[in-house]
## 1
Amino acid sequence: MNLLKSTHIYVAITVASFFWLGSAKSTAAQDDNTQISELYKLQASYHRAATVQDPANGDAPDTITARIRDVLSLFTTDAVLYLHVGSAVDGYYLSNGDPDDASTCPTPSADPNNRGTVCTFYKYVSGPFQAANKFVALTPSYKESFDVHGNMAAVYFECHYFNVAIDPATGKPLWTSASHASFTGSARKVDGRWLFSYAIGAVPPVPIP
């Protein structure tokens, strides 16, 4: 009888352990999926900010400034952006900034180790935020990757920009390729929100499935 009771107790403990382990794994998987989902939304917000709002006339200066503020809100205050595309303004852009404050958003310097701030890059360098350009930013979903490690995540995605200015001959958007860039870096969770903390901007290879 004692042996039978011990067996019942052992089976009960074993079953309970399996349920607990299964529940713990399920909770961890759900949390990981939640974090990945938030990172996808962060990337989507980036491309939304990089897309023209008035393809017919081009965005007004106030609209462009608002878009710059939107993209800067996706970066940490101590963010680092390294541009590596073979241009005259390649180099490091250090910390965030305010597009209306020249002290935190200066024009690009001649020093590749400190070209200015992340704000400098988006206000003066990044094509989608220049008044003359009417770009739409798209990204192929199979070229996105997010790898979460606690409050840090490795991030990769590509930005494919298309000129959607209106073709006067047809009255329709041109949809001509403008430029392609890759974003390789990291994101950090700050006060419960994912933000980009480091980025390398480069020219990506041809996106083969």
Note: The first strand starts at residue 75 and ends at 84.
## 2
Amino acid sequence: MLTARIEALGLGKGDRLLDIGCGEGRHCHGVQLLTQAQAIGVDLDEASLALARERAADLGGKGPVAEFRTADASALPFDDRSFDAAICSEVLEHVPDMAALVSEAARVLKPGAIYAVTVPRAWPEWICWKLASGPGGYSDQPGGHIRIVDPGELRTMVEQAGFTFLSSHHAHALHTPFWWLKTAFWSRRDDHPLVKAWHRLLVWDMMQAPWLTRGLERVLDPIMGKSLAMYFRRDP
């Protein structure tokens, strides 16, 4: 399930892509499958990185096997201007200092490089916070979301770090009702019948990609897509 569009990154053979806060490596795997670029993912969660490495080794694809390293996104262990593109997907809502991550991305990207940033869309996220509020709720989980990201503030922050805004889109509209159901039935979020039924629908959609749900999501994404993706170009 890719939130950032790999084709928007302009990756060619021999280019290097950095996935900042890669988790289990889904975007790196996408780069490996769809391009001839070298994908490098960084994260602090060792269990997620181990799974990402295992999957990358099994995937094949057009490009080199994706690499995964343990690293702090606010202090990246890479030289200045050493990457041709970067992704930071569903990360900024988790971290105390968003500006530090954006600044590090600006440092390691070459002039002209594409920087893709994705965050949860504000109004669906706000509903999740309201449905499961208070101690132990949706916004009170270890490693969970600590803010609702304002898109205007995010764009301004990235532009001030040395980027030019290019475009944006929304994604994963079918995931929005799933998270509303999970937060509405928060005490039983993993085993409530409605949550389990919607999860089966999402898995079926991802595995089979039927025209009905793919078409429905394309129509609904601008209205209620769960994620916002923004694309920027690194200034000279």
Note: The chain has one domain: 6-121+137-172+221-234.
## 3
Amino acid sequence: MIFGAITNSWRNQLMEQSLAELVAEAQARGSRHVELRQTCLGDCESGQGADWRPNLAGLQAIADGFPDLAFDLAMALPCLTGQVDPAGEQFQMALEGAKIVGRETPHLRVVDPGSFDAAWEQAADLPESALGLADLAREAARQGVILSIENSGQPIGSMALLVGECRARLTPAEGDYLGLCPDPTNQLRRFPDRDALGDLDALPMDMLKIVHFKQARDGNPHPTVDTGDLDCGQMLRLLEAKDYQGPAIMEIPPHPEVFDNLTASYDFLRAASGS
């Protein structure tokens, strides 16, 4: 498993330090992967919402400056609640950015911030707009880019249902590029009566493209990955038992001491490891 950080943890620091300086600090703290998240990329992005664009030259400089780090690019995209044109400029530039920072294994993570009235329990519950994800995955696969999807308004099992239905519309080779970014703590917030770790354990390994660790206590964000509402140690051991080898991102909240909190999160998980 590859422990990593995410740039939206560094909102406070980005007001005074460059993205490159913060990536260097994350690497010094033991990060082997950094998720480059839209809205927290400093000079490597411009615009907001539908006008957001990655600065490809800036991303190239980050990738070149840290040859020993792995990266993925992450963006908000209303691809489940609305229609996104796979040939549109924003999606195409995001794919290009993912290829620049991802090198041999480019990865674009998309999160739809929209919400839904109820969890999807069967294929008939899936909105037609959400099934448009298949078209985006087909285009990503054509360019050799892994596409992972996240939505905090649906349980992990419901998102797996969506990926399965989208894969049915793709060739097997195309479908291999489409998967999930599960975040069990997000599920706890909206679906406290569902077994978030059980849902994670039930995921087929080929759907696990990237994983987020975070913690809450009594429903409130906790500054480190530690004990709390979710058994993060058990989550780690579950992933180890599945032989998950991909990125495990510490999505810890912004904080003046965020890098100390990052180190503490890594230390906690290493102590909890079953390996």
Note: The chain has a mean pLDDT of 96.
